[in-house]
């Protein structure tokens, strides 16, 4: 039996985390309300296959989280999907500059999110 792919999600809204966990139930989902906690949990023998992060959070934003993941050699291969309620050109540029693999605007249709997840996980 093939193991489920692991998705780590950072979002400071517990309701959003619960919804994403439900919608992505085909995967093993690890939820973090603080991006710092997600970063701390990135152990070499326990890496996620994909990271999804909200952009606007209290302590650290999704751009910073993505940048910190992409600058570490042992993590930079992990695709990062950023989700935000902001969708102007500046936000897209910031996502590209920090190394995000995808930038999705809220509200994200669940079928679009699932398709993007599958594409990045090559399923």
Describe this protein's structure:
By secondary structure, the protein is of the alpha/beta class. The chain has one domain: 3-Layer(aba) Sandwich (Rossmann fold), CATH 3.40.50. The protein is built from five helices and five strands, in the order E-H-E-H-E-H-E-H-E-H. Strands 2-1-3-4-5 form a five-stranded parallel beta sheet, with helices on both faces. Strand 1, helix 1 (14-23) and strand 2 form a beta-alpha-beta unit. Helix 3 packs parallel to helix 4. It starts with 5 loop residues before the first strand and ends with a helix.
Topology:
Layout: E1 6-10, H1 14-23, E2 28-32, H2 35-41, E3 50-54, H3 62-70, E4 80-84, H4 89-98, E5 102-105, H5 110-121
Helix pairs in contact: 3-4
Could you say which overall geometry the principal axes of the C-alpha atoms support?
globular
Number of strands: 5
Low-confidence stretches: none
Binned strand content? 15-25%
Helix content: 25-40%
Offer a quick outline of the entry.
This protein has 123 residues and is α/β, with parallel strands linked by helices. The protein has five helices and five strands. Strands 2-1-3-4-5 form a five-stranded parallel β-sheet, with helices on both faces.
Which key features would you list for this structure?
123 residues; alpha/beta; Rossmann fold; 5-stranded parallel sheet; 5 helices; 5 strands; Bact_response_regulator; CheY-like_superfamily; Sig_transdc_resp-reg_receiver
């Amino acid at each position: 039996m093939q193991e489920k792919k692991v998705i780590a999600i950072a979002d400071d809204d517990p309701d959003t985390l619960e919804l994403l966990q439900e919608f992505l139930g085909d995967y093993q989902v690890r939820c973090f309300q603080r991006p710092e906690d997600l970063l701390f949990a990135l152990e070499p023998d326990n890496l996620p296959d994909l990271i999804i992060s909200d952009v606007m959070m209290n302590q650290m934003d999704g751009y910073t989280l993505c940048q910190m993941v992409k600058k570490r050699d042992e993590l930079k291969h992990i695709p990062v999907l950023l989700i935000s309620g902001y969708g102007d050109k500046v936000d897209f540029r910031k996502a590209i500059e920090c190394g995000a693999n995808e930038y999705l605007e809220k509200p994200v249709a669940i079928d679009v999110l699932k398709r993007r997840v599958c594409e990045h996980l090559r399923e």
